[in-house]
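Lab channel / #folding
Pinned by the channel admin:
"Please post every new chain as: sequence first, then the structure tokens as a reply. Keep commentary short and put observations after the output so the thread stays searchable."

First post following the new format, from NK:
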Amino acid sequence: MSQAPYAPPAEATPKVQAEVQKPEDPKVTANREMLLEAEASGKKLGTYVRLSGPGWLQSAITLGGGSLAGSLFLGVMGGTSMLWLQLLAITLGVVMLSAISYVTLSTGRRPFEAINSEINPALGWGWLLATMLANMIWCMPQFSLAYDALDKNLVPLVSAGGLGDADNTKWIVSAVLLAAAGCVVLLNVKQGTTAKIFDWVLKGLIGMVVICFFGVVALLTIKGELDFAAVFSGFIPNPGQWTGPTGELAEVAANLPAESRDYWINRLVGEQQSVMIASAATAVGINMTFLLPYSMLARGWDRPFRGLARFDLATGMAIPYVLVTSCVVIAAAASFHSKLDPNMLSDDVSVVQSSPQFAKLAQTIAPQLGIEKGDDGTFPISDADAEKIAGLSLAEKKFAAAVTKRDAFELAETLAPLLGAPVSKLVFGLGVFGMGFSTIIILMLINGYVFREISGRPDSNAAFIIGCLVAGISGALWVVFWSGGAKFWLPIIASTFGSMLLPIAYVTFFLMMNSTRILGADRPRGASAILWNVLMLIAVAGSIAAAYAAIVGQMNKSSLASSVVIGLLVVYGIALVVGHFSRLAKSPAVDTSAGV
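Reply from TO:
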């Protein structure tokens, strides 16, 4: 069935008319006509799958080191009982990303320009600067993660010594990763075949990550190591996990000695709350809200693509995220939750000291024994201390194991007896490398869009390339900055500003969805408006709660960290007030129907 050529609606503003009617790539026109015909015939699935793309970009960034670490610790602390958390977080994230995509595709306006003109310029610039800051800082741990995956699981770079000492090896590998990521990002600059190659590379990386971690769970299933009743029940929300032990540790807590019960429960709950916040926050970050609308506009998407956008977010972002994070939680639960090395079960000090877990668990237990840190920042464990550790109850040892820091590479080693050492190393090496490298690519891509807006030239390839390089080079400098004091302060600044801005961004998207001044006749009404608003308000409330907990957590780290956080809040609060009156001065007319 043929369709008439797409034209902007009569009620569109002259600015939107001009943007929609400007000459475009013939491929975009062909895609639009294909989409209209598919929707008219009722056979949308094949076309949606063929044209999907921006959702996979979201998947590539959300499946990074943060989601990997969060999933790992959820499994360690709660077993499979907290699988619901990431499912809920990604669902609410999809709601808000769907809202900003709806606004963007309905109006054809760049969100940064629309927010500055119609809402508050402080919101627009805060959104942009927080995104840029997050891109530059969070690119560093992704380089570190990709390097570790190569060195520990795939190609033992340092131990082989072929590239020189450890620092030289890190610099060489980082340069290669930067060059490779830059080449992939540049494929996205142009439409046509190169953009398709970019999509294939990205989908291939995400597919590899999904297959690797899904394969682990499949093998655990074949070996009969999984309790599917517990897995399925883990998807049922349980807010009570915020205040107490969960999973098998809830039962273990009853066996804690009276003199140490409060200490271990409070310590576990504190760590558990931090992990829950981090896991929810990694589902949708501030830079993801910037990436989606600009990646859609870059592809020439507009109003007819709104249905495709929702499908793309569900299949390209939400499903891979839930699959991968759930598989990591399940694998971690099977390997670590309420489990100890057999030697740690003994009360014989020599046997306990021979356990591969002893060194790490001793560092975790040391504060409870009143041991002071040494000059090197670690706790010196004497023979007398080792005897005390060996004499701890089984419950105390299990709680100590639950709060001991782990990484994905330990998970690979733990599963070696089940999967075979070569298989476990290869599977986790590929999965972790795919997470790190794909996230580097997307952080560079987002920064390219950011620099286009900063330059005031939304189609500038030069600004785009500069922005990509700024993020990539910042990430490659992890060898210098992602260590020592800088490693402590950079995440505090980035995560605090990002956490603070995410609910503000969500509130902004909520206002945009309810603004007749911005959406005109496309503003949702009736039952549709009620559904949108209920879902968005739940997402806004969730983001505010997570931001509050994250900011308080950062403030509790030190008095200086508290001063930094308070300073950021005050400065940005002043900017919001100034921006509000500045916007009113330029546009005194108020849209009373929207309340904006």
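NK: Confidence is low (pLDDT under 50) at residues 1-21, 588-596.
TO: also worth noting, The radius of gyration is 25 Å.
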